[in-house]
Amino acid sequence: MTITVTSWPAPAKLNLFLHITSRRKDGYHNLQTIFQFLDYSDILNFKLRQDGQLFCVSTLTDLNPEQDLTLKAARLLKQYSNTKQGVDIKVEKKIPVGGGLGGGSSDAATALLALNQLWKLNLSLDILAKLGLELGADIPVFIYGHAAWAEGIGEILTPVDLDEPWYLVIHPGCNISTAEVFNAKDLTRDSFPIIMRDFVVGKSVNTFEAIVCENYPQVNQAIKWLNQYSSAKLTGTGACLFAKFDDYTKANVVFKQLPKRWRGFVTQGKNISPAHFKNMKTTL
C-alpha cells in the first residue's frame, strides 16, 4: 500500500521590538511589535487517516499530548469543519522551546494551514486566523504568513516589508515563565505608542528585556557578549536573543566563537513565511 506523507515547515519568528502600551480589563495587555519570520523551522509530517482519528507525536519527549497546541489546532479545525477525515501528525522540533521564537504557535498555525489543504476544506485565511486566535495571540501572524506590525494583543496585523538580514540567535540555556514576566510589578505597561518611522530610526525597545536581564543572569551575560559584535535584543519574553548581520559569513564568524554553555544558530530573516510557499511530499 502506498502511504503519502506531506511535510510542512513551521518557522520561528522574532519580535524586532516589543512595547506594552496598556493593560486591559480582561487582564491581557495591549502591545506593539513587529513580527519577522526566520528561515529556521520545525517540520510537521502529516499522514491522512480515513477513520477520523487524530494523533500527534513530537520529538519532545516530555510534552504532554493533551497540552500540545498542534493537536489542539487539529481538533479545533475538525470540529469547526465537521470533516470525517483524520490525521497522524509528527512534529520534528528544532525551534528552542520557551525561547520567545513562537515555536508552539507556529506548529499550530502550520497544522491549520496544512489540514485546510489536505482535508480540502477551502477555508479562508481569515477563518483560520480566527480559529488560531482561540489558541494563542500570535498564531494569526503565522496564518497570514507575512511580516507584520502588530497591535492589540498581537492579532491586529499590518503587513510590512523589511530588510531580510542574517541573524545570530542565541539560547542562553534557561527557561523563562511568560506569565511570571507579564505579572512583574516593575513591568512598564504604559509605553507611548510609536509609529513605523520611530522603529526605523531606533526609537524602540523590548519592554521585557530589563526585567529578564535582572532576573536571569544567563540572558544578561549573553546579551553583553553578543553586544561586542552587533546590537543584541531579546525576542518576545525570552529567553532567546538575537543580533543582525549584513551577511551569512559575518554572522557565522561570531557564531563559531559562541561559548559552549549556550546554543545558537545562524539564519536569515524572511518577510514571507516558509510555510506559505514550501511543502514537501514523500511517498513511502
* Helix and strand sequence: EEEHEHHHEEEHHHHEEHEE
| Number of structural units classed as domains | 2
How much helical structure, as a percent, in the residues? 25-40%
Mean pLDDT, nearest integer?
A: 93
Largest sheet: 11 strands, mixed
Describe this structure in words.
This protein is an alpha+beta fold. The protein folds into 2 domains: 166 residues, Ribosomal Protein S5, domain 2; 105 residues, Alpha-Beta Plaits, CATH 3.30.70.890. The protein is 28% helix and 30% strand. The chain is built from 9 helices and 11 strands. Strands 1, 2, 3, 4, 5, 6, 7, 8, 9, 10 and 11 form an 11-stranded mixed beta sheet that branches. Helix 1 links the parallel strand 3 and strand 4. Helix 1 packs parallel to helix 2, helix 2 crosses helix 3 and helix 7 crosses helix 8. The N and C termini lie close together (9 Å). 40% of the residues are buried.
Topology:
Elements: E1 4-23, E2 29-49, E3 54-58, H1 69-81, E4 86-92, H2 103-118, H3 125-133, H4 139-144, E5 148-151, E6 156-159, E7 166-171, H5 178-182, H6 196-200, H7 209-215, H8 217-227, E8 233-234, E9 241-245, H9 248-255, E10 263-270, E11 280-283
Parallel strand pairs: 3-4
Antiparallel strand pairs: 1-2, 1-11, 2-4, 2-5, 2-10, 5-6, 7-9, 7-10, 8-9
Helix pairs in contact: 1-2, 2-3, 7-8
